[in-house]
Amino acid sequence: MNTGKLYLVGLGPGDAGNLTPAAAAAIADSDELVGYHYYIEQVAGEAAGKVSHAMELGQELERAALAVDIAYSGKTVAVVSSGDAGIYGMAGPVFRVLTDRQWNGHNPAVETVPGVSALQSAAALLGSPLMQDFCAISLSNLLTPWEQIRRRLEAAAAGDFVTVLYNPRSRRRVSQLQEARDIYLAHRSSDTPVGIVRHAFRPEQAVSLAVLGGLDGERLGVDMFTTVVIGNSNTYVHNGRMVTPRGYEAKG
């Protein structure tokens, strides 16, 4: 018996122009929506007339459980995330709940709809910082021990990866970004370019450039809506754009 469907939808950075047609179609096909209230508001037009369940940050598993319940009841539900649902988004919590409930892989049907991720949005606004190998690391230690995050930072810094930092700083977490900066300073120059993008493609958008040695989260206004991009040893700035050459070569 068909027991419903789950869409895991990435909404992109927030601008309607970056909501993919597939994401819009998934929302249109859904009976109900589940998500963080800020993201539900983001697609209020597309979701007009639908039942929406808006929750707060920190209620990811509750959101996932509610969405799975709705799908098992026979309805089609869209679980919305900013950026891409599979990158620090709601795909993980939903699949965890499905696993705990011994999901058979078919009912409910599950479809993941990719979206424009925060790292892609930040890179587009900064220039071309991701032209060589890069990695993404979340500085939030709510679900991952800080020592594990520190080991990942050490490895990425030593490997000369361009690094995108998610969740770099919050009102309660103020030391992690400074510690990350110090780890990178042990491996690359203090004048390494750093891109700081806040509220990408939203009305509050702010884009700035700094250097690694001057990466001060409080002074630069870094918060949970900010993506920080640390260049590698070959990254440079040209006319206000952050550039990582496609290969290792002399800086322009």
Your description of this structure?
The radius of gyration is 19 Å and the shape is elongated. The longest helix is centred in the first third of the chain and has 13 residues, at 60-72. Strands 3-2-4-1-5 form a five-stranded parallel beta sheet, with helices on both faces. It is α/β, with parallel strands linked by helices and 252 residues long. 29% of the residues lie in helices and 25% in strands. The protein starts with a strand and ends in a 9-residue tail after the last strand.
The unreliable regions are: none
Label the structural class.
alpha/beta
Per the principal axes of the C-alpha atoms, what is the gross shape?
elongated
Radius of gyration: 19 Å
Q: How far apart, in Å, are the first and last alpha carbons?
A: 62 Å
The assembly state of the depicted protein chains is single chain
Q: How many DSSP helices? A: 8
Helical amount:
25-40%
Q: Provide the succession of SSEs.
A: EHEHEHEHEHEEHEHEEHEEE
- Taking strands numbered 1, 2, ... along the chain, how are they ordered across the largest sheet? 3-2-4-1-5
The overall average pLDDT, rounded, is 94
Number of E-state strands: 13
How large a portion of the residues is in β-strands, by DSSP E? Answer: 15-25%
The major pleated sheet works out as:
5 strands, parallel
